[in-house]
Amino acid sequence: MKLLKSKNSGNGFGYVKLKIESEDDIWELYNLILSGDSVRSITYRKTHKENTSGAVSVKVHKLVMTIIVKNTDYGGQTLRVSGFNAIDNEYVKMGQHHTMELRVGSELILYKRSWDWLARTRLEESCKKKIGAGDDILILLIGNGVANMFLVSSQKTVNLFTVNHNITRGQNNNHPYKESKNKFFQMITQNLISHLNFEDLDNIILGGPGFYKNDFFKYLMDSDNQKNKDLTGILKNKRHVFIIASTSSVFQSSIDEILLNKDFQEKLKDTKAFQQVKLIQHFQYLLATNPDLVCYGLKNTENALESNAIETLMVSDTLIRSDSLKIRSKLANITAMNNNLGGKTCVFSSTHNSGKTLENMSGIAAILRFPVDHLQDYEADDSNQGWETGDERGKDGQDEDFDWFKKEKDEIKKHQQSQQDDNCIEKQLQQVSMGDDHFLTNLKNDKEINDISSDN
């Protein structure tokens, strides 16, 4: 992501002008643009006009709009940002709902009323990262009639393609078996060619249970295989492009088996996905062997932080995207305080297996420098308490909403907005209409930052 310009008035207020340079940037923006923020970019709006004969004509207008964000929808190659128009224009009245679509090449202005430590850090890291920086891991898992291709980047794990084909039972010299197996391999190869540029690849980890991965490698290297002649020619000069590994399955759950394989750690040690898997593995090891040196759940984490005992704080990005202002505010305070005290903070992607493991432990956990005695006073049921309700309890003394995290994830998936956030957006619209929102109203008049272009 390219930072074109930034303005900050102090106290956390300010805005940045950005250009999306890769699909990874779209994921970063998905975690950066939150409910209540404002986004200004080129967008399109349909208008309908009825002529004298009653026929309705539709015209699409290209314009620059500023919307106060209600929710976002990540689509891989695009990010849909929905909200309410903050600045009147010829086609959309202030307060009307609109959805803009951001993609590679788009420029935008992102305005936040508070650029907390998490937001500033995420922006800085995403703007520093170079395109094709080599942090991506390609894993092809092949089994009996099933193949899955995964791209594991620093931000997410993506299933690039899946191939299913029924392989006839038999031995290698059995014609129907050999024919159906070759058909399966041909389907995989066609998908590889359509999804990847082999000239630029360093390597692909080829894994799976049994012998199919080895047979597929032999199939690719077969000089008599005329259907793959061009690909075979490339691979002849780059035989090292495939690294063969054994896994228990062909599904995403087996990715961690590869990342933790000692044979590959030298190649993968600089990738963020590997580092996060190792961190979770270390946490689980301490939890089993020396539980006084770890904690999880909001209550225990806050108490460990107050004692300056946190060495590494681990946070799920699902929490960062929460629609709840209370959760985001509390998380921002925790991460900022941890940074000020010299602790490390690691944000885990919810699409990685390591991130899913963290989610199952409430979404927040920590490795400690030293034991904190009073952490044992908090029971397991209390680990998720405090995000929304503080220290409030039910009549029986139990946390009434200890399953908040599951509910919060469901709300995020459905893009439901809390009433408090709706009131916040409505208040922002009122401020803009009355001329009280200094930043949003000045965006329209700021010629230097208002010049937005798009490569689309």
Description of the structure:
- By secondary structure, this protein is α+β, with helices and mostly antiparallel strands.
- The protein has 3 domains: 2-129, SH3 type barrels (Roll), CATH 2.30.30; 137-268, Nucleotidyltransferase, domain 5 (2-Layer Sandwich); 272-413, Ribosomal protein L30/S12 (60s Ribosomal Protein L30, Chain: A), CATH 3.30.1330.
- Helix content is 35%, strand content 26%.
- It is flat, with a radius of gyration of 26 Å.
- The chain starts with a strand and ends in a 6-residue tail after the last helix.
Overview features:
eRF1_2; 35% helix; 16 strands; SH3 type barrels; Nucleotidyltransferase, domain 5; 456 residues; alpha+beta; Eukaryotic peptide chain release factor subunit 1; 60s Ribosomal Protein L30, Chain: A; TF_pelota; 7-stranded antiparallel sheet
Our count of helices gives 16
| CATH architectural grouping of the largest domain | 2-Layer Sandwich
Q: Which strand order does the major sheet show?
A: 1-2-7-3-4-5-6
Q: Mean pLDDT score, rounded?
A: 79
Helical proportion, percent range? 25-40%
The name of the CATH superfamily of the largest domain reads Ribosomal protein L30/S12
Distance between the termini: 16 Å
Protein structure class: alpha+beta
The portion of residues forming beta strands comes to 25-35%
The total number of structural domains is 3
| Level-1 CATH class name of the largest domain | Alpha Beta
Low-confidence stretches: 377-383, 389-402, 412-419
How many beta-strand runs? 16
Rg over alpha carbons: 26 Å
Biggest beta sheet attributes: 7 strands, antiparallel
- Any idea what the shape is? flat
As for the CATH topology of the largest domain, it is: 60s Ribosomal Protein L30, Chain: A
